[in-house]
Design goal:
CATH topology of the largest domain in chain B: Fumarate Reductase Cytochrome B subunit
Number of strands of chain B: 8
Number of domains of chain B: 4
Shape of chain A: globular
Distance between the termini of chain B: 91 Å
Helix content of chain B: 40-55%
Order of helices and strands of chain A: EEEHEHEHEHEEEEHEH
Oligomer: heterodimer
Largest interface: A-B, 16 and 22 residues
Helix content of chain A: 25-40%
Strand order of the largest sheet of chain B: 2-1-3-4
Amino acid sequence: MKIIVAIKQVPSRDANVKVNAAGKWIEEQDLNYEINEPDAYALEEALQLKEKHGGEVVALCAGPDRVSQTIREALAKGADRAIHIEADDLNALDTLGVAKMLAAAVKAENADLILTGLQSDDLGLGQTGVVMAELLGIPHGTIIMQVEKSDGGIRVKRELEDGWFQHVEMPLPALLTIQSGISKLRYATLMGIKKAKTKEVKRIAASELGGLAEKAVSLDKVYMPHKQKQTQMIGGSPAEAAKTLVEKLKFEVRVI
Amino acid sequence: MFHLAGLSRLSIASLAIGYAEPVGFSRWEIVLFLVLALASLSAFFARFSKVLVRIFESKKDPDFRLSPIARRVWDFVWEVMCQAKVIKERPLPGLAHAFVFWGFCAFALVTLNHFATGVGFPFLRSRTWVGGFYFWFAAAFAVLTAVSIAALFVRRLFVRPIWLGQKVSYESLFIAFLILALMVTYLGAFYVGASPGTIKALWWAHTLALLIFLPLIPHTKHLHLVLSPVTVFLKREGFSRIPPLAGDEDFGMVTGRDLTQIAALQAYSCVECGRCTEHCPAANTGKVLNPKEVILGLRGYLNELGPKSEEPLIGKHESLEALFQCTTCGSCEYQCPVGIQHLPMIIGMRRGAVNTGVWEDDYGTKLFLALEKNGNALGLSSSERDKFIAKQQFPIFDGTQEYCLWLGCMGGYDPQGREIIASFARVMEYLGTTYGVMKKEKCTGDPARRLGNDLVFQTLVEENLRNFEQNKVKRIVSICPHCVRTMAEDWKEYGVAPEIEHHSEFMARHQSRLPNKDTGETIVYHDPCYLGRYRGVYDQPRQVLALSGTVIDPPRARERSFCCGAGGGLAFLGEEQGERVSHNRAKELVETGAQVVGVACPFCNTMFRDALGATSEAPPKLLDIAQITALQLPQKVAARADG
């Protein structure tokens, strides 16, 4: 099975994030970056499928030079080779633009399976994978928790709401977006890092993949969530106060 | 003239009851002796050369250096010639062993003469001054050796300490018997009434015992007779020192090809005395690990497969499970009388397993990912540390302060560890020492280092070194012996770390300026492995504690201290098999009857926090030396917010 895993590099979880002067994105200096967590699980799933069924795992990542660190980690954990789409500023694109680039880069690979995390930790749009599948003209499944090979295709377990799951049979090739936390991640080893140095990383300039398309969606404003604390004193007799409290909880705060 | 003549008459009279030399060897006897001697020596060399070949065919130790030669000579004199370590750690059997050893040394000349007599050229004669004296001198040792070997025989056959192994080694008993026979046949020749025939029979009995003994040496633990003096002399520098990896293909000890000459020499030197096992926290609490078996496993591997084998070490001869039960407390290495360095081997094999991804453990993986991602072993966000610093209003180190106060993972993230840091900060403030904490800190890499993850370790060390350099840090003080050891020793291969000391050393240096008010309490002090055996700091924490109460030692103290169970990354590896190491130690501490358990390591602290409660109805108070000192400070200084 040939599997492509699309991974993204995002600011690390405990980074001290500040909004930039333009108010359109965050300050990128002094930030530490890491692999997007759901993508780490997509990579783990790919590696486990390869261990079970054989084949090849190719890591696909778009971004500036700094993403080569994330690519190296993916190779160290066991990906066989990687494709680096050199794009200086992913924020200059919308989801469709990113998906177009990714799809164009993997089209010729004719992979059996494309995996990616269900969403990114920075933007959290959850669309890139789905749009990519559409562009490649292959079926997709989202929020996948389990992948098993079946005759002629795969059988996947999807997470629905409220503790419900859905089991779906799918043909191959297909694209799956993987839920975070579904398995145990492996640690990178010294041997892996040493081997990673000898593995192939194909670099493709963003311009070779149709360039930067016109944005259909643009990011207007980035801001820190406001913490609000309001205190209201409810007067009257205990019975009246209780009645007012219930009303407020029901209709204003809507928690009961 | 007159006097001299009188003296010589007297001497001859006394020598008459000296060693009686056999006389009148026939040609056939000489031929028989030569044939037997040749056979015995050939058998010895045939077996011994195999061992030597395996040792010399092993990989060269890439970083081995003979200097400092003075230390090596001293170790040789002290540990081999004086038998100091053998006696110190097991006085009675140790002394018995020492007498046998010294007896062997004294006998070397007698034995050479014995053989020379067999071919008709004795060089020691009992009628000469030198000979007469020497035979008596050797006889004194023969008596001591005979008594000692008989005692050791009884110990092995009847007392049977479990450390010697489950089964009685009949081979060892037979060798003990041969040694006894050697002594008795020698002493017999002093018997005045013996006829020349008896004297010759004794000579033959002595000779046969020797010729049988010789070929037994190379394939029994008695190989240590030949090898261990060399092993002690060639010991690698440093305690529990982990050698740097050499080149891109070195991942630690994976196959026979990774065994170095010194490792092979040490494996063949093991005398199977079981001192390592006797003191091992894992072996004492029902785990699979037995350090003696780790060494014998390597010997078994070399015997079966040799040093050129590509077969993994872990498998038939070494157990993966056992290797990861080691707390790296260092007792085995400290105790070993023949100079075996267990930790470079145990950690070497862990490195092999982790660096190649063979070791799969949920807890271990979680720890490595936490170190990779969060830079601390507890897996918490670094903002938690920022909040603690803000709450305590610790000054940030900016190069102007005397000390950088290193928080470490425990001091920065663990509630109990934070209390220790806060207490120690108060002590520094009381003393008027300026300090600052790092704005950002990452784990020193200790758990990764001991578990054998070189990738994580190297990344952490390099980030920390960069951080220190940028902030111009020169002197560090830390509450954690693990941080201290790792920075001071293990970082060396990556650069020059700032000077670091443990807070016990700092406080002991300033003890004259610290409050000295006896609380009337008895404090039992637990020596942390990484402060004691690893750093040789035993007195300083005791001096600091003595300012506040009466300090007592548990039965296993100082160099013989028993581990809390946390070291070697094991604090993060989940539930133990068998009895918990911490419970075993906590019981011992409680039984001393002390009101306070004084500790000097945040890991020991966290282990005993649960263990004391679990093993005692009314557990003693558990406090770090810094907390005990801080309790004595005037209120004004003590006003800092609690951790």
